[in-house]
Amino acid sequence: MTHHTPTPPVRGCGNTPILKQRGQREVFCGLTGIIWLHRKMQDAFFLVVGSRTCAHLLQSAAGVMIFAEPRFGTAILEETDLAGMADAQDELDDVVARLLARRPDIRQLFLVGSCPSEVIKLDLSRAAERMTQAHAPHVRVLNYSGSGIETTFTEGEDACLASMVPVLPETDARELLVVGALPDVVEDQMLGLLAAMGVTPVRVLPARRSEDIPSVGPNTVFALTQPFLGETTQVLERRGARHIPAPFPFGEEGTTAWLAAIAAEFGVDAETFARATDAPRARARKAIATVAEGLRGKTIFFFPDSQLEIPLARFLTRECGMEALEVGAPYIHKQIVGPDLDLMAEGPVLSEGQDVDLQLDRARASRPDLTVCGLGLANPLEAEGLATKWAIELVFTPVHFYEQAADLAGLFSRPLRRHGILKDLNGGVA
Ligand code: SF4
C-alpha cells in the first residue's frame, strides 16, 4: 500500500557524519515553555520555584498577554532560602495552599524547578508527592525542571510532558496518542484529518483539560508533533507504548508523510487516504509555491536552538528551494529525526551541540542569506550585515500541518525581504 509518500533523495543525510562540539552555548532556558503550555492546559497552573530573574524572564516572554486569572506564577526564593536559613519546603507548602484555596479551577499544578532551586537542592519531587496527598483528589501536583543549566528552551515542554507520563492511567486499548502541544485550532485540523482517514479515537498529550488526560499502555502507538520530545518518548516507551517514526508535519510533504505513517499503522487504504488529504495537499502546495518565490536559491544556516532545525531544513530545502549550508541542532536523536534526515539531500554540514565561536566563524565564512539563531546571536549578526530569524518565533507561531505550511515559509521569507529592502535603502549595503 502506498500513500504518496515523498521520494527520498539518492543520497540523504541519514549517514552524514555529525560534527559534535561542546563549548560555550547561547540558549534560552526551559521556563520559556510555560508560555505556550499554560495556554494549552486550561486547568493547569505552573508555579516556578525560582528567583526574581526567573519571574522577570517569564513576564517579559509572556509579553502583553494579560489574564484575569493567570495560569503561571513564581514562588520567589528569597535570600534567606538561598542561604539555607529558612525551610523552603514549608514556605512552598504555604504558597501552594494559599494558591489552591484561592483558585479552585486549578486541577493540575506543576512545580517548575529553576537554577536557584537546583542550586539549593530543593527537592521538588518530594514536595509534589506531599502536596498531591494533601490536595487529592481535586489537584494533581507534578514537578519538572525548567532550569537553564545545560538545557534548551524547548526542553521545558519535554520535561513537563515526561513528568505527566508515569501517572497516566493504564489501558489495553489500541489507541493513537499524538504527543506535543499544538495550538487548539491546529490540533483540531489534525484531528479532522485523522478522523477523515477513519483513525479514531485519538488521544492527545498534553490534553486541554484534566478530564481528557489520555491513558497509555502496551497497545498505545504514539506520534510526535514536535522533535524535541526525546525524554517523553523514552518514558512513553517505558510504559509499553510504541513510537511511529515519521517526518514531522511541517510543510505539505512533511504533513503527508506524517499522516501516511499513521495510515500505514492503522491499515488505512490508499483511496481513503487520498480522499482525506488530496484537497488540503493541493491547497498547501499552491500556497507554499507563492511564498517560496522569495526563498528559492537562497542559503540558510541554522544555529542550534529550538531542536526544530532538522525538520525545518528538510522543508525549506525540499519544498521552498533553499540551500542549507549548516544545520545545527542541540541534540540529534536519530530515532526521532531520522526520517527527516533521510529525506534531506546530502550537502549541509550537520552539527550537534555548539562551540559558539567556531560556529560563528563558519557562519561568517559562508555568508548565508539567512541565519536562524537565538536572540543573543541575532543582533551581532545583523550588525555584520547578515539577515537573521529568531528560532523562538518558530515555536510561538502556529506552523504545523497543511493549512499553516505557507505561514511557515513566510516566517523565513519575511526577514529576507526586510533585509533586501534595508539593503536597497542603504545603497546596496545592509
Ligand atoms: Fe535564569 Fe535559570 Fe531562572 Fe531560567 S531558570 S530564568 S536561566 S535563573
From TrEMBL:
The answer to whether the entry has keyword Hydrolase is no
Which residues are in the Nitrogenase/oxidoreductase component domain?
29-406
Keywords tagged on the record:
4Fe-4S, ATP-binding, Bacteriochlorophyll biosynthesis, Chlorophyll biosynthesis, Iron, Iron-sulfur, Metal-binding, Nucleotide-binding, Oxidoreductase, Photosynthesis
Pathway annotation: Porphyrin-containing compound metabolism; bacteriochlorophyll biosynthesis (light-independent)
Q: What is its EC number?
A: 1.3.7.7
Cofactor info, note text: Binds 1 [4Fe-4S] cluster per heterodimer. The cluster is bound at the heterodimer interface by residues from both subunits.
Q: What class of enzyme is it?
A: oxidoreductase
| GO biological process entries | light-independent bacteriochlorophyll biosynthetic process; photosynthesis, dark reaction
Q: Which residues form the signal peptide?
A: none
User: Where does the chain bind [4Fe-4S] cluster?
Assistant: C29, C54, C115
> How does the annotation summarize its subunit structure?
Protochlorophyllide reductase is composed of three subunits; BchL, BchN and BchB. Forms a heterotetramer of two BchB and two BchN subunits.
Named from the GO MF annotations, one term is: ATP binding
- Catalysed reaction equations from the record: chlorophyllide a + oxidized 2[4Fe-4S]-[ferredoxin] + 2 ADP + 2 phosphate = protochlorophyllide a + reduced 2[4Fe-4S]-[ferredoxin] + 2 ATP + 2 H2O
What name does UniProt use for this protein?
Light-independent protochlorophyllide reductase subunit N
Q: Which InterPro entries match?
A: LIPOR_BchN/ChlN, Nase/OxRdtase_comp1, Protochl_reductN
Family according to the record: Belongs to the BchN/ChlN family.
Described function: Component of the dark-operative protochlorophyllide reductase (DPOR) that uses Mg-ATP and reduced ferredoxin to reduce ring D of protochlorophyllide (Pchlide) to form chlorophyllide a (Chlide). This reaction is light-independent. The NB-protein (BchN-BchB) is the catalytic component of the complex.
Q: What Pfam families does the annotation carry?
A: Oxidored_nitro
Per its UniProt record, what PANTHER family does this chain match? Answer: LIGHT-INDEPENDENT PROTOCHLOROPHYLLIDE REDUCTASE SUBUNIT N
Task: Write down the required cofactor(s).
Answer: [4Fe-4S] cluster
User: What is the taxonomic lineage of the source species?
Assistant: Bacteria, Pseudomonadati, Pseudomonadota, Alphaproteobacteria, Rhodobacterales
